[in-house]
Amino acid sequence: MNMSTLSRADLVRELLAPTVCASSVLPLHVSDAVAHMGMGDLPETELAHRLDVARELLLRDLREQMCNSPVMSSPQVLRDWLRLHCAGLQHEVFLVIYLDAHHRLIEAEELFRGTLTQTSVYPREVVKGALTRNAAALALAHNHPSGEAEPSRADELLTQTLKSALNLVDVRIIDHFIVAGDKVVSFAELGLI
Questions:
Q1: Sign for the pseudo-dihedral over CA of 103, 105, 114, 58
Q2: What is the pLDDT of residues 83-140, one digit of tens each?
Q3: CATH label, 71-186, candidates 2.40.240.10, 3.40.140.10, 3.30.565.10, 3.30.10.20
């Protein structure tokens, strides 16, 4: 099921739908009913589905927050969104977060997808995406499925190449993040931007 096509109301219905009872016997006490509805009683596929629905709702809420106020005025929102977006990925992805002149979210795009250890990033496509969306600034992000959050020399060189290319069209890179499990490392905080 493609959850991105469902409305918020549909997602909430999916999340709160009653579990299908394994037997037709009704619980005799409220405490039995509550215990029966607990997550521990859900079949693994239903639990996974509900977690996916909850994840989609959280991603939407965080995205809305990034649209309504400057992304870096509350960087934790962006970090939380990145962690959720990259959760469980077994391959590298390169994300571009397009921002307006006030650094509010225009769009977040998974621009490139790679293998377990690398992703090819083409500066021309990043510049083209920024111009198409009339972005004034970008935040970049990619994940490290290995769990190692430190930027590599190749990550640093790519960031500088993208920064140079985007400067030609008057678009700033405000940060580049590496997501590794629950860790998010900021190039700006490390002095690499």
A1: positive
A2: 888 888 889 999 999 999 999 999 999 999 888 777 899 999 999 999 999 999 999 9
A3: 3.40.140.10
